[in-house]
Please model this.
Amino acid sequence: MSETTTTEAAETSGTDATPQDVRSAPSDELAAVEAEGTRDGESVAAADDSVGDPGAPDGESAGDDDGADPGQKPGSGRGKTSIRRLEEEGEVAADYLEELLDIADLDGDIDIDVENGRASVAIVGEDGSDRELRRLVGSRGEVLEALQELSRLAVQARTGERSRMMLDIAGFRAARRRKLEDVAARACQEVKHTGQAYRLEPMTAFERKVVHDVVAVAGLISESEGEDPGRRVVIHPASA
Model:
């Protein structure tokens, strides 16, 4: 088993409100997203952290679902977390996951990274094949979410601090991100074309954050409404 460490930092944000008079995405709009991956993705309507997090510590913006204090920007003030501290979180999580792989008699490389102000750990197949590792994802990502939460608890037990570490296995989240970016981009085009707000299907915190990022790049406005597991993103025209 091997571990590699790289560093990348970025920040994104979304808002939270309850808009009115919005278009809703047809149910088949996200069908392609649900058909990926192990099936290569989980249900967009599934309850999450990121995808499916108790307490939603992995949400789309500071003060929303990602465990930051309301109004506090990620990586600023007393919530600032050093790169070294995040790397330490990744190392602790990697140790925990390596033991789990040994117990399950599964082979995999563990990569440690720092992305968007949080530790990121990924388990990938040693020989380029992720088939066996998909057992640790689950048909809809539920096993992955459970393992992510257990890894965070392992980090908290070692460091005494709450962790927002993100876990990916067999490229599950990466594939989801690509599909969601496409769905969000098409929704943004619809908003620009019609000038009307557009309500997407319920998503997990991880999925909502991906959408917020795409909307921000498109120069539009996005906000979240509702409560998990029915929480969703609504996209508004820039002039709204």
Notes: The CA atoms of residues 25 and 200 lie 5 Å apart. The chain has one domain: 3-236. Residues 3-236 form one domain. DSSP finds five helices and nine strands in the chain.
